[in-house]
Amino acid sequence: MTERLESNYNCANASEDLHELQLLLNQLPAGGKLTPEQQEEANRLHNLIHFIKNKCDIPNG
């Protein structure tokens, strides 16, 4: 799921997927001390979270 999302994403999975993505994001080191690879992964996770929230009309917050 977290590798690639398509425009036909099923919003019925949003709650579980968002939880999984947030857990993965929280596993990255805090405090801005990320390697370039970790920063790339953080950006990818943020993008996936944003995609799901936007696609499924889930408010931020």
Give an overview of the whole structure:
- With 61 residues, the protein is mainly alpha-helical.
- The chain has helices at 14-26, 36-55.
- Helix 1 (14-26) packs antiparallel against helix 2.
Features:
mainly alpha; 2 helices; 0% strand; elongated; DUF2524 domain-containing protein
Outline the secondary-structure elements.
Blueprint: H1 14-26, H2 36-55
Helix pairs in contact: 1-2
Range of helix content:
40-55%
Instruction: Report mean pLDDT, rounded to a whole number.
Output: 89
* Main beta-sheet strand count, sense and barrel state: none
* Chain oligomer state: single chain
Radius of gyration: 12 Å
N to C succession of SSEs: HH
Structural class: mainly alpha
The N- to C-terminal Cα distance equals: 23 Å
Strand portion, in percent? under 5%
What's the total number of strands?
Answer: 0
Number of helical elements: 2
Protein name: DUF2524 domain-containing protein
Organism: Paenibacillus roseus
